[in-house]
Task: structure prediction
Amino acid sequence: MENKRITVFCGHYGSGKSNLAVNYALKLRAEGKSVTLADLDIVNPYFRSADSKRELEDQGIRVIVSDYANTNLDVPALPAEIYSLCDPALGCVVIDLGGDDRGALALGRLRHQIRQEDNYAMVFVLNCYRPLTRTPEEALEVIAEVSAAAGLPVTALANNSNLGEETTAETVLDSLDFAKEVSERTGLPLVCTAADEKLCPALEGKAEALLPLKLQEKYY
Amino acid sequence: MSQKVLMKGNEAIAEAAIIAGCRHYFGYPITPQTEIAAYMAKRMPKIGGTFLQAESEIAAINMVYGAASAGVRAMTSSSSPGISLKQEGISYIAGAELPAVIVNSQRAGPGLGGIQPGQSDYFQAVKGGGHGDYHLIVLTPASVQEMAELTVKAFDLADKYRMPVMLLTDGTIGQMMEPVSLDLKVESAVEKPWATTGTEMKREHNIITSLSLVPAELEQWNLDRYAKYAHIEENETLWEEYMTEDADVVVVAFGIAARVSKNAVNAARAEGIKVGLIRPITVWPFPNKPLAALAAKGVSMVCVELSMGQMIEDVKLATECKVPVSLCKRVGGIIPTPNEILEAIRAAKGGNEA
Result:
């Protein structure tokens, strides 16, 4: 994945944007970069990148989240700190957007500055096991809706096709044709195939640009 | 490609309702169940169904009343404060003996409470909620797969018994994502000769109402309905038993609490404690029989709930207070941890030995 100063992860609900954003931020940090992760999800009440705040901060990553994330209040508010994301002196920025066009709206405030600086990637996360993006046609529809709502065109694709805890290497391999077709039909580069790090040895050499993911543990 | 898809619990409810033949959904958004409405808004227009965002929860439940009167499979969904608003309509639907499905993705209460998960609407769901003598069949899924399966079952039971059925879930199972098989079995459609579908001048009018001007008639309606409830209690009670055979202690929990409890039971077994789990799948009708059988063997009970202790009353009734029943709880939107439950199991085990 080519490093731009700002990397935005967008896509359909539940495609895995937060997992990708958290892991990508950690990867950049491990490469010695100065990294800020911004959780701009204004639609999802539970399970968000803000859940990983402590882990990210322990690694020296600055985390910007809504003051109300993971509280008992459902307010789609964004913190004023998000304006600092457009300062090129800040270093690398990873933005985790909410799902679908509704979630992509949150980027509207920043789109002019992001365009002006022109050092960004808008990565659309694909999961062909999600019921409303099972076919390339459906994925194309959501890509168009997200681009329109964000006011920024999608510039790249990440294949994160998975079936949660039942994901096997086969699950990932079965999705490669889907991702390739979306890439061909949109003309957008497929920049990575993301998968649980435990599956990566079995995928080595079979999937391009593997991005190993460390997934959060659940206790239920 | 895999037959399974990755879904949020709320989406699984919506898609399963469509598979069950529901083409009429009426709702009003509230966290943490808004995905049900969002999914219906996307899917219903594509399959010739009706998605209608009502002006309020009260309007939505009365639209369900109307649609159910006309004999179609209708559904509404909300979360705790919204379900409180629907209670008048639910009582009318129960009184008029109409099939309908109501989803409550519970959050923490009372009042506006918060958006994090809860189970403190148990009393409301199983002890009435609205006014008058009535029951709902109440189903409590504990996985995304069960969200789908029990939604279909809810429609089938509603039609079979002409009564409202509630899917009592919570924000966490609604929001969590798991692989689901949508290969769901729907029972064949029930004839509805009572539905108000137009007489075409060929039959007498059908009248749907919960009102009777004659006390003796209203009394008879109530008696008939309770005879039906007795039949349901006998035939439709569902529960899961896990490692109860040799157990000295049994945890009783439903929904998200049962998922965490299962992990705690496994951890306790690893310590050599003989513990099992009873997971009610219907909380009305309540699984009295297996609990009474365990109580007769002297098994202590630990109830795990995301409430101040509501289901525990039914456990005490089922066991006729013959055995100690303790409570392990978290409220305010917090899920008990496996360790907290393990502590409660150890304490119950210690109580047995003392």
Summary: The CA atoms of residues 91 and 171 of chain A lie 36 Å apart.
